[in-house]
Structure formats: structure tokens, C-alpha cells
Amino acid sequence: MKPSLITPHPISEGCLGDCSYCIVKIARGKLISYPREKIVNKAKDLIDKGAKCLFITAQDTACYGFDIGDNLANLLNDLSQIEGEFIMRVGMMHAKNAQLILDELIEVYKNEKVGKFLHLPLQSGDDEILKKMKRGYTVDEFKDIVNEFRRKVKNLCFTTDIIVGFPGETEEQFQNTLEVLKELKPDYIHGAKYSQRKGTEAAKMKQVDTKIRKRRSEILDKLRRELSYLNNKKYIGKTMRVLVLDKGKGYTDNFKVVKFEGGEVGEFRKIKITDAKTFGLRGKLISN
């Protein structure tokens, strides 16, 4: 069966996290990493059959291999050696695990086959809430990871996740989260109102009123739109390598969506960015 142009490529099941609000560990169980050789061989097969973009997926890609004496940087290095023109988007990483392999990870991100896309959930910009969430890192440790990536990886697209209205979150703690986001300026923020998951620790904690959660979610949504547009404007005038996905649409090599005229589906082309929208770019095809 022929794979699609963009193909998900799972590398593990389960995770090493113990987040107080999450049902995934209960549902999916402990970490089981697939052997590196099998992942690489499968990727070769997908690329040989026409895939141009592999979405490297897992509950937490950063802890890949920790159960089998391996790690994500080693895997990405091997995947990058596969012949052919393709690009990989590495899925969500847990900051506490990314921190353990940070230097190796940043080094492999410099390879042109690894998309300059970092999905690193913050969840809260307040240390007390992070502790209640059992995230395993502080706000400052999280900032250090993002800043180190940005310092060494050009045109990094940094995406994060935020939960508003976590049990016990005060107005001050919510404001702390907003301030951290204004400082870090993520390219994209996935915002979510906290919702109880039966069987989790957080479900037993004192809950924040649903109206407060809704109001905080609206405030976050306004900020995420502002920051996204601010980031996208920086690309105007730049020339980007783009994978043509559809008629008049493609992914840049840091996985921003860009619209343009021309190009054949499945080819990589140079696009000059001419305009920015809140959640995307517009550009002009540069002739070969």
C-alpha cells in the first residue's frame, strides 16, 4: 500500500511521566520503545514508496529509548542518513526528558532532514502549579531549554501547550503563565481548559470554577493569536524551503503553513514569504 505524502511514524508506546492530570499513563501503560533498526527500516520503506514527510510520533518522543539503552538523538541521526529528499517533524517532547539529551538533540536538529519544529508543552508558567501537576521541571529550566534551542537552531518554530484553570490555580498564578508566554513568545500555543479525568490525582483536588476557566481560556486565546501573528511577521522577506502538499499550499522546513501559486505536489521548492497571517504565511514561488 502506497503511503501518503505525510505519514505518521510511531517510535514508542506509553511514557515515563506521572502527571497528576493525565490519563494516558493509566490507559497506555509504561514506556515501550521500538527497536531503532526496525524504525529505520520502516522509514526507508515509506520513503522508497513516496513519503516526503515523516511525523515522528509518541506520547513523549523525548523519552524514546530510555527503556532500552537508547535515545531520540541516536534515532534521528540514523533516520537522517536515509537516502532521498524528505523531512521529519518530531512530535511532542516532555521537557524533563529533553533536558537529559539536550546537547545531542540540538546537534541533530541542525540536519536539514530534521524539521526546525519544537513541540514542548509548558502547561503552566507557575512553579507551584507545575509541582502540583508533577511535571518534573521548573519554569526557569523550561526557559533554558527553549532559549538553548533558539540560540543554536535557526528559524526554530516553537509550539507549546497550556492548561488553564488547573485545580487550585489562583489569578496570580494564571498571570504568571501569561507573563512567561509573553517572554518566550511561542509560535503557536495549544490552549486547553482543565477538565477532570476520572482516576487521576488532579480530579480529587479542589476544582476551579468553570466560569473562571472559560474566562482564562478566552484571555489565553487572545494572547496566542497576538504572539502567533507577531512571530509570523518576522518571516516576511525571507526565502524558505517548502514541501508542496497541495495545490497552492505547503509546509516550510519549520512546519509553518504557507500559501502560494504553482509547484508540483511532493516537490521541495524555494518560496519567498510576502505576507503573514495569524496562523500562516503567504509567499511567491522562486523559479529554479
UniProtKB/TrEMBL annotation:
Its cofactor is [4Fe-4S] cluster. It comes from the Archaea. Binds 1 or 2 [4Fe-4S] cluster. One cluster is coordinated with 3 cysteines and an exchangeable S-adenosyl-L-methionine. One of its GO terms (molecular function) is metal ion binding. InterPro entries: Elp3/MiaA/NifB-like_rSAM (IPR006638), Methylthiotransferase (IPR005839), MiaB-like_arc_euk (IPR006466), rSAM (IPR007197), rSAM_horseshoe (IPR023404), rSAM_sf (IPR058240), TRAM_dom (IPR002792). Its EC number is 2.8.4.5. Keywords: 4Fe-4S, Iron, Iron-sulfur, Metal-binding, S-adenosyl-L-methionine, Transferase, tRNA processing. It catalyses: N(6)-L-threonylcarbamoyladenosine(37) in tRNA + (sulfur carrier)-SH + AH2 + 2 S-adenosyl-L-methionine = 2-methylsulfanyl-N(6)-L-threonylcarbamoyladenosine(37) in tRNA + (sulfur carrier)-H + 5'-deoxyadenosine + L-methionine + A + S-adenosyl-L-homocysteine + 2 H(+). Pfam families: Radical_SAM, TRAM. Residues 1-230 form the Radical SAM core domain. Residues 233-287 form the TRAM domain. It is an enzyme of class 2 (transferase). PANTHER family: RADICAL SAM PROTEINS, THREONYLCARBAMOYLADENOSINE TRNA METHYLTHIOTRANSFERASE. Belongs to the methylthiotransferase family. CDKAL1 subfamily. Catalyzes the methylthiolation of N6-threonylcarbamoyladenosine (t(6)A), leading to the formation of 2-methylthio-N6-threonylcarbamoyladenosine (ms(2)t(6)A) at position 37 in tRNAs that read codons beginning with adenine. This is tRNA-t(6)A37 methylthiotransferase. It comes from Methanotorris formicicus Mc-S-70.
